[in-house]
Specification:
Length: about 160
């Protein structure tokens, strides 16, 4: 049911999203909103494919034996979804940073990296543009590694809890 909506979102250029959103929302929320709109279809598609990869026999067996929802979630759904979630988070963080900075540049959001890049472009300060680009790359990499670390810690915690219980 949501697939056509996400296909539409995925096909609209980021610049068009930014310009349209500038009409409707405050520039303070622009980069966050654009980042979410760009990442949401990626996460949706990966989670949807992960759900489809769950063995039908296991789902039927859990229904026959009336396994409670939270146990199904913990032992059936989460182990199947963890790899695809990790992948979508890794891809999503990069997309989020790129689209967020693009939104800041086009929307000229105050006190942001995007505004600094825009001002550097206007003043023809190529070195500053390159420096800000390096900062974005470093922040994106650091955020991606942090998120991956958090996801892997959650995954390990579930694995340890499964062994204990």
């Amino acid at each position: 049911m949501l697939s056509p909506v996400f296909i539409l979102i995925r096909s609209i250029p980021v610049a068009s999203f930014i310009v349209l959103l500038l009409v409707f929302i405050n520039t303070r929320f622009l980069s966050t909103t654009v980042g979410c709109l760009i990442v949401l279809p990626v996460v949706f598609e990966n989670v949807y494919s992960g759900l489809n990869m769950i063995e039908k026999n296991m789902l039927e067996m859990s229904e026959i034996f009336r396994v409670p929802f939270f146990k199904r979630l913990k032992y059936l759904y989460l182990p199947s979804l963890m790899p695809v979630l990790l992948t979508s988070v890794s891809v999503g963080v990069g997309f989020c940073f790129k689209s967020g900075v693009a939104a800041e540049v086009i929307g000229i959001c105050r006190n942001t990296i995007g505004e600094a890049i825009y001002m550097s472009k206007i003043n023809l300060e190529t070195a500053d543009v390159l420096a800000w680009t390096v900062v974005i790359i470093l922040l994106s990499t650091l955020t991606e590694k942090s998120v991956r670390h958090m996801v892997s810690m959650v995954e390990k915690r579930h694995t340890i809890n499964d062994r204990v219980s």
